[in-house]
Specification:
This protein is α/β, with parallel strands linked by helices. The chain folds into 2 domains: about 210 residues, Alpha-Beta Complex (Spore Coat Polysaccharide Biosynthesis Protein SpsA, Chain A), CATH 3.90.550; about 60 residues, no CATH class. It contains 9 helices and 12 strands. Strands 1, 2, 3, 4, 5, 6, 7, 11 and 12 form a 9-stranded mixed β-sheet that branches. The longest helix is centred in the last third of the chain and has 25 residues. The radius of gyration is 19 Å and the shape is globular. The termini are far apart.
Length: about 290
């Protein structure tokens, strides 16, 4: 279900999955910040039809697209971005639906584009419950623990470091040519690590990635994935393994395998103690990867 309109040059895209109140809060923050409704694109990524219809009735003036299947963050991101660029957007501030923005957020991303000559920008993301505490201003791949971490404070370098830093998928700004050049997210990742993979591919292609300290986003953590073990256990660890095998040398991969296997064994022990048979199924699938 698609509403095609000619989009303004710079748009705001929101990825939504079922959470009506969260999505309303996000859309309300965009509209109340003064952004024109025709610049707002809401992508319903596998939401129940009744959820999509309620939001469409609540916000008939914005653009809506519905996918019957939830294709994970990576698939939802790609489909939403293709939709917006096909409608005439030149750039997109892309948000998950557990975020809110203010009137200067997009403008500051555009200012960073001009100052840094960057087509891929990391805004400053703060915790919604603790707005003085930073969730991230970009993140990095920790080559000691072979996991992902966030930068939690400014000042930081204007540019993200190749081979180390990444832009979290919670909120990002991207220009059309960068999306087309990279092909967007690798949908094999589904959810988790897809943002790090995209960032590393950008680095490898010589694409400049910059921070926008003044572009503020506020994030309500953990509303979609963290209560679902298939996301927090299986996809995170599976994609972690995929990422390491893609970007590390043999020595690093061997060290990463040792650390990851040890962590999986610890999770397995706890799952056995709790009698969590569902989690044990996911862990069994992870063990097959080694």
């Amino acid at each position: 279900m698609i509403i095609f309109r000619m989009a303004p040059e710079n748009c705001i895209g929101i990825l939504s999955y079922n959470k009506i109140n969260l999505t309303k809060r996000c859309v309300d923050s965009v509209i109340s910040s003064g952004y024109e409704p025709d610049s707002v694109f809401l992508y319903h990524n596998g939401s129940q039809l009744k959820v999509m219809e309620e939001l469409k009735n609540e916000y008939p003036e914005i653009n809506h697209q519905w996918s019957e299947e939830n294709t994970g963050y990576s698939g939802g991101f790609n489909s939403a971005m293709e939709w917006m660029f096909n409608c005439g957007a030149r750039s997109v501030l892309f948000l998950t639906n557990d975020t809110i923005i203010n009137s200067a957020t997009l403008i500051n991303c555009l200012n960073t584009e001009k100052k840094a000559d960057s087509g891929f920008v990391a805004p400053s993301i703060f915790y919604l419950k603790y707005p003085d505490k930073m969730d991230s201003s970009g993140g990095f791949f920790d080559r000691e623990r072979f996991t992902l971490s966030h930068y939690h404070s400014h000042p930081l370098p204007a540019f993200l470091e190749p081979g180390r830093d990444y832009i979290p998928g919670t909120a990002l700004w991207m220009r059309e040519d960068i999306f087309k050049r990279t092909g967007g997210m690798d949908e094999q990742f589904h959810t988790y690590w897809e943002d790090a993979d995209l960032s590393f591919r950008c680095h490898d292609s010589g694409i400049i990635m910059a921070r926008s300290p003044e572009a503020e986003i506020f994030h309500g953590i953990g509303q979609t994935c963290h209560k679902k073990p298939i996301y927090t256990t299986f996809y995170f660890q599976r994609n972690r393994i995929m990422f390491c095998r893609k970007y590390l040398n043999d020595t690093e991969i061997n060290k990463a395998n040792e650390i990851i296997i040890s962590e999986i064994e610890g999770m397995k022990k706890k799952a056995i103690e709790r009698g969590d048979h569902k989690k044990l199924e996911y862990i069994s699938e992870l063990e097959k990867l080694f």
